[in-house]
Please model this.
Amino acid sequence: MKLLLDLGNTRLKWALHRGTDVLAGDAVAWNESVAEALAASWAGLAPPSAIFGASVVDAAREQLVAASATAAFGREPWWLRTPAEACGVRNAYAEPQRLGVDRFLAMVAARAEGSAPCILAGVGTALTLDALAADGRHLGGLIAPGPRLMQQSLLGATAQVRPAHAGTIVEVADNTADAVASGCWLAAAALVGRFAAHMSPALGGAPSLRLGGGDAEALLPLLATPAQLVHDNVLRGLAAWAAAQ
Model:
């Protein structure tokens, strides 16, 4: 059995795998008591033969999770740092480690599941976009603020934009709350559509669009391009990587 850890910006997700079977899994937000939550979740689980983790957070949180794993299982995680190539995916970055490991593993999952060529959009704190060719070449991508972060940034930087309630997404707004929400979410949707259209010729026509991340479901109906909603990209990619070790 292998324990897989996905340390994202908002929360930690974990899954216990035996081969392709997921035996257990859960998630805990960073604003919760992480050590207590993990101790409760992992109590009674059989010790895994290996623990693999992917992290986009700071060293302090990695150390917190490592300490929890050691306390529960007597074993520390092995942290995957973004490689130049793995599992048939070739990183486009000249400095491979500067590509977020979450983005790399999303491409590994797509490749392993036979979805390449494709566009991958991660919708969370950041909006990430990547193009993956049929032969596993990463053609590059884009990073922008996620739609919620766009809203927070706008509200934090302006004195007069202070909506009294959460906005509704509409095509044309007649109040500030709706105008802010609509502008940010539709901007994110437009960027996804533009990137997909721009990269389509390089990917051989009409690549599939894979949408993941905590806000993927909310963005999906706003897209003009058909998209597949995918969950747990990092954990699935990490499982494919771990199976190859």
In short: The mean pLDDT is 94. The two ends are 13 Å apart (CA to CA). Residues 176-199 form the longest helix (24 residues).
